[in-house]
Amino acid sequence: MGRGSVVGEALLNSPDVNAITFTGSIQTGKKVAAKSVEHLRKFQLEMGGKNPLVVLDDADLKVAVEVAANGGFFQTGQRCTASSRAIVTAGIHDKFVAALTERIKALVVDDALKDGTQVGPVVDQSQLRPG
Hints:
There is one protein chain. Strand 1 (19-24), helix 2 and strand 2 (42-47) form a beta-alpha-beta unit. By secondary structure, this protein is α/β, with parallel strands linked by helices. The chain has helices spanning 4-13, 26-38, 61-73, 90-105; strands at 19-24, 42-47, 52-55, 85-88. Helices cover 40% and strands 15% of the residues. Helix 3 crosses helix 4 (90-105). The strands form two sheets. The protein has a two-stranded parallel ribbon.
């Protein structure tokens, strides 16, 4: 855990790291790619794709809804891989939206240390500022 400029540099420069997965900005992704090529390590990048969740017509609706809710709200949605959008095929779309809406309405938002809380507060005051 730590700032990307510190922890990221250590990972990128370590001869012991065989592969890296990165989600974030294009600028940093280019650096990750270049350093990974330099060290001949495997890497994958998610740069600006907004972490889509794809739900196809043959999806198990209950599972897809839980994955979507957890993907968007687990850890208060404050992780780089939090689902930011859902791409849902026409055959399941309306059922999925209705079920996900009900699931989200049922989430318990409260003090993170309180029993039963499913979504706690944002990390700090800076998270509330736009942009």
